[in-house]
Amino acid sequence: MAMALRFLRPLRGVRAFAAQPIKCKAAVARGVNDLRVEEVTVAPPGPREVRLKVHSNALCHTDIYTLSGQDPEGLFPSILGHEAGTEVESVGEGVVGDCIFCFPPRGKRTNLCPKIRGTQGSGVMPDGTSRFTDSSGAEIKHFMGCSTFSEYTVVADISCAKVSDTAPLDVCSLLGCGVSTGLGAAWNTLNVEGGSSVAVFGLGAVGLSVIQGAAMRGAARIFAVDTNPKKFVMAKELGATDCVNPKDYDKPIQQVLVGMTKWGVDYTFDCTGNTEVMRAALESAHRGWGESCVIGVAAAGKEISTRPFQLVTGRKWTGTAFGGFKGRSEVPPLIDAYESGRLKLDHYITHRFKGVEGNLQAVEALHSGECLRAVVTY
């Protein structure tokens, strides 16, 4: 989905350059749907790297997507996980908090870094090597530059965002990817304004966070679209005004939504990863000015299509990376908003588990269809 960030709270006595290897437990993905708890060795951080003690890890559908073998970049063996609240254990040389890998973000441009993305996609650190080995000394790959299914992990310093000392790290984990992406898609990418209409396709944690973000912006009408009516309860609590189940109609859902409005919906969001739903979201957008945002991650090899007429009549089709947030500077204020009561987040945590073994239970919970976010505390 989006570039994930690690949240860190400095520990007393943190020392640079003197760290030793650490043995700890991790949930290692050995192959497709093969997740095992093992002892691993986590090497000290190198230059511009940070070794973190993972406090809490939230499971994201992107982890499941990779574990199931659908991700063309998915590598095995690897340590998955990319939404976490952590503490700094040690730092490498040169960690000063400034990004040296990519150009400074300008204006509305995000700080999604193409340079570090290359090594992240290869399962290694920016220097091309891994910090994880198993009990036989064999290398284990990193995942999305994070690998938080482990009691300790090493990340590049630019993958960290410092939050307040009082921030609850289990809640911080929610903003490592999905919830931030949904809120940012509404606030940053499409910039939903008061009085507008919104349609959200797919009511997982990402879709619900879009609804929450749109409601906080004052959207007048919010359509929540899903084939599971059980999800409508939370959608309404977060601000949805209309709940629509495509199974209740004998015509395409885009025709239903256009019929329920004047000429379509101002802003639409796909949070499913289904390419047919992406098309339906675009074609539900208002003729002349409607905007549609693709958030969901499609399976490998899938392509999107529509008639050019949908675009030449004024609609816009776009995507979002991490909701357009500049992670290091703009995510910590979200935690401040949570601590002050201005941003509600606890409702996303529907399941809690303990220990690294809890990641296996979290995977099962996410498959159940009853889970928004399962948080595992180590």
UniProtKB/TrEMBL annotation:
<feature type="domain" description="Alcohol dehydrogenase-like N-terminal">
    <location>
        <begin position="46"/>
        <end position="164"/>
    </location>
</feature>
<dbReference type="InterPro" id="IPR013154">
    <property type="entry name" value="ADH-like_N"/>
</dbReference>
<dbReference type="InterPro" id="IPR036291">
    <property type="entry name" value="NAD(P)-bd_dom_sf"/>
</dbReference>
<dbReference type="GO" id="GO:0046294">
    <property type="term" value="P:formaldehyde catabolic process"/>
</dbReference>
<keyword id="KW-0520">NAD</keyword>
<keyword id="KW-0862">Zinc</keyword>
<keyword id="KW-0479">Metal-binding</keyword>
<dbReference type="GO" id="GO:0005829">
    <property type="term" value="C:cytosol"/>
</dbReference>
<dbReference type="GO" id="GO:0051903">
    <property type="term" value="F:S-(hydroxymethyl)glutathione dehydrogenase [NAD(P)+] activity"/>
</dbReference>
<feature type="domain" description="Alcohol dehydrogenase-like C-terminal">
    <location>
        <begin position="205"/>
        <end position="337"/>
    </location>
</feature>
<dbReference type="GO" id="GO:0008270">
    <property type="term" value="F:zinc ion binding"/>
</dbReference>
<dbReference type="InterPro" id="IPR013149">
    <property type="entry name" value="ADH-like_C"/>
</dbReference>
<dbReference type="Pfam" id="PF08240">
    <property type="entry name" value="ADH_N"/>
</dbReference>
<dbReference type="Pfam" id="PF00107">
    <property type="entry name" value="ADH_zinc_N"/>
</dbReference>
<dbReference type="InterPro" id="IPR011032">
    <property type="entry name" value="GroES-like_sf"/>
</dbReference>
<protein>
    <recommendedName>
        <fullName>S-(hydroxymethyl)glutathione dehydrogenase</fullName>
    </recommendedName>
</protein>
